[in-house]
Amino acid sequence: MRAVIVITGSLLLLLGACNLTEKNLPTAASTADVIYFDGTIITVNDAQPNVEAVALKDGKILAVGTRADIEKQNKGATTQMINLGGKTMIPGFVDGHSHFVEVGTQSVSANLLPAPDGPVNAIPELQQALRDFMATSAIVKAHHIVVGMNYDNSQMVEQRHPTRQELDAVSTKIPIMISHQSGHIGVLNSKALEMAGISAATPNPPGGVIEREADGKTPNGVLQETAFFMAAPKLMPTFTPDELIAQIQGGEAHYIANGFTTAQDGKTSVATLKVLPEIARMGGFKIDVVSYADLVAVVDAGDEAILQGPLMSRSYTNHFRIGGVKLTLDGSPQGKTAWFTHPYFKVPSGQDKNYAGYPAFTDAKLHDWVNLAYKNNWQLLAHTNGDAAIDQLIRIVQDTAASYPPKDRRTVMIHGQLLRADQIPQIKELGIFPSEFPMHTFYWGDYYRESVVGPARAENISPTGWLLKSDMKFSIHSDAPVVFPDAMRLISTAVNRVTRSGYILGPKQRISPLVALKAMTIWPAYQHFEEATKGSIEVGKIADLVILSDNPLTVDHAKIIDIKVDETIKDGKVIYQRGLATTPPAINCATDTACGKALNAPAQFFVPAAIDD
Question: Where does the Amidohydrolase domain start and stop, copy by copy (predicted)?
Fold first, then answer.
């Protein structure tokens, strides 16, 4: 009898094991579409920083953990198993701040960047670049205007801006308009000045300067801030729908190739706010694009209705949404128009020794704009480079917020190049989120030391180390097309802070590679109110991922710049593989009335002044 009981017990145990095995087989709901394994997987989730495998299903992250557990729980007959081959997987990059549309504009403009990104380090080279562009550009042929972007006087041997006469040497018959790398200054030839209606009798507009020749009256071609912003729309051509689509999708391809799965269009123009939703509606985007409207332009145009509509949302519709509004409080440090509390180390020609830049708004006017944003619960991005502009932002936010119930608004301080240590507790208390631009340390760090603010103050530009020490989240951004949306250069500059000359600028402000990754993934996701769905490799989040050729946490810091983006994955689908061309979704505006109407945009659609470094 005992033997029978033993046998029966064994059979029960065997049957139980069989039943247990059946229960552990993946169900339809738990069967992964794909499982990634055999690589370094950096989740950017402090609670589970590294895992062996990631399972994806229906565009979301189904499971993270050990390979054995995931295969046991989530591998089915149809599951695709992808071996990472020792490469590194991270969350998709979230763009802290840039100008998505203008990156497309850059692709159809003359490249006037200095080395290492372009050919212009002297005015004769700038002139030749414009001539070469004129000879080959379909845009020049079709629209009879030459547009050049991103010259940088600080990197040219002449150490000054070109003049209208030097652009006239390229052409007096075709209008030429070029923009400074900051986007805050432009130069026009005589024909372009004439078309823009600028003459010796034209006064300086509020918040801008028309630079003059020796007689103090004749424009020399250089336009600062609002003077440039007002002239540019009068000159930009009305592109055809096909041209607009090609430019915007071409810009998106740059982000995708650099691992960005969310891009930002900061200070979106009125016309662009009508174009982007139409491209999205027709399935024209592969990644998410969040727009922050140019608040002043929208109100002045009487188009506030678009900010009250369904696109102003925390959710994307066809990869597009309006996240809020943007204001520009001052100018550019390297353009010497940013607003400081102390004078520039070397003041620009024609300015007195106390010149410290200037604001875009009076306190009273800024209060009106901030109040409008807060009243409507629109998230506000505020461009503030100089410490005086940051002081103004603090004053106005503090005053305005006192009139409303406490709310998590996540007002964003864009750039904050000259953010002072004493201002950090103030922005932290007010809930102002800093989005920093450490690329300045490489591109203009030497110029900051030698000309902009001097050696001492230059050490603490873009002070990410201070923010980290103050236990603040922050994002780091490229401000593309001021510089290319190069994700690995952005991480490298934040970690190393090495200038063009090899000088380490502000070693105390350096951050670790892991912190830099957080500042390009989970923290900018928080900045955009998207931390619950993006920014880390966690169960339930959107499957936005990047595969890198090496591990940025373990390679020599100096070699981070050499890491390549091998794949970009959006919503669980591979949208980029290194070495393969990115094919944008096809759009046919000719058969779509709404698209055709929206994309027959006015000349203001592409305005270099929308860039706001």
Answer: 80-576
Q: What is the dihedral of CA 489, 491, 497, 499, to 10 degrees?
A: 0
At 19, the amino acid letter reads: N
Q: How far apart are CA 126 and CA 528, in angstroms?
A: 38
Q: What is the CA radius of gyration of the chain?
A: 26
Distance between the two ends of the chain, CA-based, in angstroms?
Answer: 88
27-48 per-position pLDDT tens digit: 778 999 999 999 999 999 999 9
Domain with CATH 3.10.310.70 in the chain: 104-235
DSSP 3-state of 335: coil
The model's pTM is 0.87
Write down the architecture of domain 29-91+537-571 according to CATH: Roll (2.30)
Q: Peptide bond preceding 481: is omega within 30 degrees of 0, i.e. cis?
A: yes
pLDDT in tens, 183-241: 889 999 999 999 999 999 999 998 899 999 999 999 999 999 999 989 988 888 888 88
Token pair recorded at residue 481: 């097309």
Region(s) of the chain under CATH 3.20.20.140: 329-518
| Inter-axis angle of helices 270-281 and 241-257, nearest 10 | 80
Spatial CA neighbour of 256 closest among 292, 288, 290, 291: 288
CA distance 20 to 9: 16
